Every structure is written in structure tokens, then in C-alpha cells.
């Protein structure tokens, strides 16, 4: 499994628990790996967009704070 596939699996694992926004997903990945893995914006958000395009997650916009949360589909 390459790094890209690992990131996708980690994102789906985080979102399996509850909807989260990008920053919280990145923090959860960092926490689960005890700081060994970091999901930077340049890799995290394209991965989220790809997962959404594939129908694996859905995003929602919230009026409060303007943040988007992702859900597993």
C-alpha cells in the first residue's frame, strides 16, 4: 500500500467515528500515529476531494464559522 492509499484509509478511519473538518482530521491522524504521520493541507484536501468525487464521503457546509465537515457516505 503506497502513501496515498494509506492517507485515504486513515481519513476514512477517522470519519468512520464522526463527521470532522479538515483540521480535526489532520490532528486525529497525527494523534493516532503518535506524531509519526502528519497530513498537510497540500495532501489532505486533495485526498478529501478525491474521496468525495468517488462518493466515499460527503461534505457539508455550516454557516457557523464557515467550516466544512466531511461524513462517510
From TrEMBL:
Highest taxon of source: Bacteria
Full protein name: PadR family transcriptional regulator
Database matches in Gene3D superfamilies: Winged helix-like DNA-binding domain superfamily/Winged helix DNA-binding domain (1.10.10.10)
Organism: Deinococcus multiflagellatus
Lineage: Bacteria, Thermotogati, Deinococcota, Deinococci, Deinococcales
Transcription regulator PadR N-terminal domain sequence ranges: 11-63
